[in-house]
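Appendix B.2, paired examples.
Example (i):
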Amino acid sequence: MRYWMHQYKRTWRGSITTSFLYPVLYLGAMGLGLGSLVKHPVGGVPFLDFIAPGLLASTAMQIGGNESMYPVMAAIKWLRTYFAMLATPLTVIDVLVGHLAWIALRLLMVTSIYLAIMAAFGTVHSGLAVLAIPVGILTGLAFATPIAAFAAAQQNDTGFSTIYRFGLIPLFLFSGTFFPIGLLPGWMQPVAQATPLYHGVALCRGLVLGHLRPAAAGAHLAYLLLLTVVGFVLAQRTYRRRLVT
């Protein structure tokens, strides 16, 4: 984890766009720009208030995915950073947990900034909104752990474009971020509800707007935790298979 933090100290300027500008641009363009054309409430609230917590969860998904794809492959194949770490008393599990801990810290930074910008836009309506930060972290890790497991097993990066094209981008559009999934065709609604981003969006939206029901919150949390744990177990196996010769 100290390695990833040290590396970030030298490259943090490149993350200004995703950390600061994206929230402002998305909320300004989609919430205020497009939102000015949406005359009726969406999900019982103004359009800007509806999409803001969804964008927080979607950003966590993107950060978790980005940080567990190319950085993992680079650490194994191109830069071989993981092997340098394993030349010390560190074990494979140390390497994996350290990288995931860094991803969690990165998610903490981004979700905290996003929530602050949401507050500046006036979209935070409950004191429970602060809990959207750990929910965002969990949402990001629910993607990061299985994607890291996948990345560690790959010989090249061709599979990453497939994840973006058929995974992250469709989830961003059709998991309840921009409109209620009840507006989807009937056969697509169960598919959307089975996606991890839907659960992250629902949790963040309920916390930020103060409309979260305890039973639903427990189900959403259980889903995200289960996916994170399963991904972690799979990552342990692929990391050992790839790093231990």
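Example (ii):
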Amino acid sequence: MSIALFTAISGLRSFQHVLDVVGNNLANLSTPGFKKNNVVFKEMLSQTLKSASSPTTGTGGVNPMQVGLGATIGGINRDYSQGLLETTGRATDMAITGNGFFILKNDMGVGYTRNGSFSIDMQGNLVDMNGYKVQGWMATDGTVNTSGNLTDISIPVGEGVIAKATSKVGYSGNLDASQGNYDPGPPETGGKYISQSIVYDSLGQSHTVTITFTKQTPTGGGASEWAYSAVIDSGTAATGYIGFDKNGKYDAAHSTASPNVKLTLTNGAKDLDIDLDFSSITQLSTPGQYSVVANYQNGYETGVLSSFAIDKNGLINGVYSNGISQTLGQIALANFKNPEGLETGDGGLLIASPNSGTAEVGEPSSNSLGAINTGTLELSNVDISSEFTKMIIAQRAFQANSRVVTVMDNILEEVANLKR
């Protein structure tokens, strides 16, 4: 009789755990990225009253007679089905569609989460609500090396400053073919044009490149020719000539090599050494009109990071006050051979376990990893109606098992009264 009592108690304990799990699921209904848990039961050991016997010539086989000793929790499984996405509009909120986890790090180690509610701290670090730092790869001069080690993601809005020295300037436009050779004596008859453009040193300070084009009698064998003298500020001039063919197009074979203009700087910046590209200049008849201008230069003045955006591949693109856009870094994702093997640590952070496997780190939207959706959060995948149904079933089962305890108590009382 005591067996039935302990069997019922095992049921009470098991369904108490069900209510605990259901309560936790409902409590985390509004937790971004939360994945619900499901309880799986298993039967406990059985008491064998009579063993099975095999058939003989005269009798048939007999099945075993066993009485179960109750139920216990066989497992609590996490359901990783995709949750719905909620639009928040915050640039630092992110949701993963597909497989994968954000990688977070603190002084205690590394953890993983689907909760992409992040923010930027006072040092520019991308962090979660507990201050754990989001991991990925930071860019060098706009290039991300995803084969390198993971590092803290930093987005220093309002503080990040960039500048780049000009190393190349490209020119386009036209030199007037109708002009005769320049005559330095009065009156000037044309054949001379000055073009100026702005370039930058490594500190973002601007300098002026002045190029003087002078039409001259061809000395290099081309159909026509213009001499040039290029100088940065008041530095040493680089000289040569540009040849044009009979169609007025740049003639590389009858031109000197594109010049390098240099300037030694005293402001602490690197010395300037700039290639000038004249290959897009033409020489057509435009009486009295010249249009040679710098259409390209690869340097830029000092700029402060003013905004950023994160794409589906996790690339963080920064926009600076000088109009330059540059990749700042890339957020990394991790996946596991058995995500259900992850353990839950402090603050809901998931931790690798012996049965989860090691983290397989990669770029979002690559291999088996999902994509990142910025400005959204993944909602909990808890279904209220399903949880209420489980709660009702667990409540009724708990009541039924408690009834067994009550009945067994009455029976034991009757047995105790037999001696009277």
